[in-house]
Amino acid sequence: MGFTKRAIACGKRNRYSRPVVTSHPRESAVFYRVPDDEYPTMVRASGFHLWDSSGKQYLDLSSGISATAGIGQGRPEIAEAMAAQARTLTFVHNSRVTNDQQELLAARLAGLAPEGVGRVMFTSGGSEANELSIRIARQYHLARGDWERTRIVTLSPSYHGATVGALSMTGRWDINRAYEPHLMDTVKVPAPVNFRGPFAGLEGESLAERAAEALDSAIEATGPHTVSAVMVEPVSPSAGMAVPPASYWQKVRDICDRYGILLITDEIVTGAGRTGEFLAMDHFGVVADLSNLAKGLSGGYVPLGATLVKTRIVEEIAVQSRRLAEVHTFSGAPISCAVGVAVLDVIVREGLMEQAAKRGAFLRSLLEDELGDLPFVGEIRGIGLMQMVEYVRSRDSREKFPPESDVAASLSSAMYERGVVLNTLGSQSALVGDCTVFFPALTIGETDLEQGVRVLREVLEDQHGRW
Ligand SMILES: Cc1ncc(COP(=O)(O)O)c(C=O)c1O
């Protein structure tokens, strides 16, 4: 059955306007994200190629979603590590015992992290890691007798996950509005985006100064002695992949230090080599107190997240005999950690961080050469192998396309039809418009990137008249 032909014939489209294969029609027992949509069934993957149930092949330039399947799919060495661990020690819980793989993965991560970041606690994913880091921050302040420090400051736009605490920290109204009555009260500060919004047109030091001032004033207004932590994404897809100047992050670090506030980085997308360094903050010469990883850490092979913590924070907590009484069942689970170790082995052995920097620069110049002349391409932004193309109605005014133009959804749909998987983001905030997002595997080749960008250009030329 043809993915596109059948779907087009029946006129059925899912939320992203992707034509859908109707091989799993309504009788499916799955509660889908959009319950009455129908979804194509993927049946096989190798590297960064996928095959659906009709046999159609796709080039995946999203790594599953947002930088997850970063080392490519179906690697025998990862499958072997997973199977060997399942045979040796399937499961123990870290509340009473430890296990070799948890120890090994924590040591590897501490070895890759900046100096002074020497302890790691594991979770099942990114939202859990972000929430864990908030609880660790609380324990740290309690250990120091700083009982009043309860407030969390985050940037807007931002995305920190789908659990209620992580949603509370998320600065995206399109995602968390429905849950507002359940959310924690967090302080939101404008992200250092200079394409639109309060910092429009500012560059370099003036952008850094103004955006850092906004953070400083928000903390002052909240009462610095009540603030526990500032949580940020070093480069945020939700903020249009804008890369802030290094001095912005240095100022943020200074502000946190001045007020005794912990700096938490959400490196769930940017970490594990995606940007060309192990942590994106490494580019900016800033060391966070807590750094959260997930997605690319396990390459999509198992659910796995981690919070990397400065040793001195853990020492403070330990001296006061405080403990994190709450547990996640899969924290430090042997199979997940064995996969994490095997994935890091691949990243280091194959030089994938260096490759991310190199291929990222190649992708960037390809995007600029191939798409830069299109009048509706507003800006191309990003770092390493995370790059974004934003579309605008007018380059001069930077006006976004109205929601009814359905730009992101129609592009995504057309790319799927042409066998290329690319994340697209519809305009989700006042600051960012419709975008195509590239998160290819760190193992991607130049010709694959050329193929993906060529198809995108063809689709754009075909579609833009309809927006
Ligand atoms: C920046 C960022 N933080 C946190 C999360 C949440 O991670 P998870 O979906 O593993 O809970 C995501 C997921 O997309 C993310 O992109």
**Extended strand count:** 15
Number of domains: 2
* Rounded mean pLDDT score: 93
Uncertain residue ranges: 1-13, 15-22
Helix content: 25-40%
Shape: globular
Radius of gyration: 22 Å
Distance between the termini: 30 Å
Report the top-level CATH class of the largest domain: Alpha Beta
Question: What secondary-structure arrangement, pairings included, does this model have?
Answer:
Blueprint: H1 3-10, E1 42-46, E2 49-52, E3 57-60, H2 63-67, H3 76-88, H4 100-112, E4 117-123, H5 126-143, E5 151-156, H6 164-169, H7 173-176, E6 187-190, H8 204-222, E7 227-232, H9 246-259, E8 262-266, E9 290-293, E10 305-310, H10 311-319, H11 334-349, H12 352-371, E11 377-383, E12 386-391, H13 407-417, E13 420-421, E14 423-425, E15 435-438, H14 446-463
Parallel strand pairs: 3-13, 5-6, 5-7, 7-8, 8-9
Antiparallel strand pairs: 1-2, 2-3, 4-10, 9-10, 11-12, 12-15, 14-15
Helix pairs in contact: 3-11, 4-11, 5-10, 8-9, 12-14, 13-14
Pyridoxal-5'-phosphate binds at residues 66, 125-127, 130, 159-162, 233, 266, 268-269, 294.
Structure commentary:
The protein has 467 residues and is α/β, with parallel strands linked by helices. The protein has two domains: 3-71 and 352-466, Aspartate Aminotransferase, domain 1 (Alpha-Beta Complex), CATH 3.90.1150.10; 76-349, 3-Layer(aba) Sandwich (Aspartate Aminotransferase, domain 2), CATH 3.40.640. It contains 14 helices and 15 strands. It has helices spanning 3-10, 63-67, 76-88, 100-112, 126-143, 164-169, 173-176, 204-222, 246-259, 311-319, 334-349, 352-371, 407-417, 446-463, and strands at 42-46, 49-52, 57-60, 117-123, 151-156, 187-190, 227-232, 262-266, 290-293, 305-310, 377-383, 386-391, 420-421, 423-425, 435-438. The strands form three sheets. The chain has a seven-stranded mixed beta sheet, with helices on both faces. A four-stranded mixed beta sheet has the order 1-2-3-13. The protein has a four-stranded antiparallel beta sheet with strand order 11-12-15-14. A hairpin with a 2-residue loop joins strand 1 (42-46) and strand 2 (49-52). It starts with a helix and ends with a helix. Mean pLDDT is 93; it is low at 1-13 and 15-22. Pyridoxal-5'-phosphate binds at residues 66, 125-127, 130, 159-162, 233, 266, 268-269, 294.
